[in-house]
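Annex B.
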Amino acid sequence: MASLSSSPAPISPAYPSVGRLSDSPCFPQYTASLNCLEVNQQDKSKCQLLFDDYKECKKKEVVKQYLSYFPSISLSANISPITRTVLKVDVIITPDFVWKDRFHGASERWWFSVEKWSREYHMQLFVIEHSF
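SEC63 domain-containing protein: predicted structure tokens.
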């Protein structure tokens, strides 16, 4: 007679947000404030410094998130001569930010210019469009 054995189902957190909290860079401050509350029998006045550390960490996390939305690009160019007075310029432009329709809309515009000292040789508009 074969015995049926079932593997235990993975335990999911009681609240969905708990999984994300453990991945947060502020998790050490969060656990330290909870441990302080346990040690001091829920006396919040003794743990205020740890609460403030956690709040500051969360503020930094939000600022870092919003900075990732700031439009920036990575640019790589390969320049080769065609004649004595003409250059061929191959440019690879890669968006280096998190796209949010709320901030960027459907597209972001950039000006590309080729300059030497204060003389401008070429200027071109290019548009990065959000692909859905």
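Helices lie at 16-23, 27-39, 48-67, 101-104. The chain is about 35% helix and 30% strand. Further annotation is deferred to the next reporting cycle.
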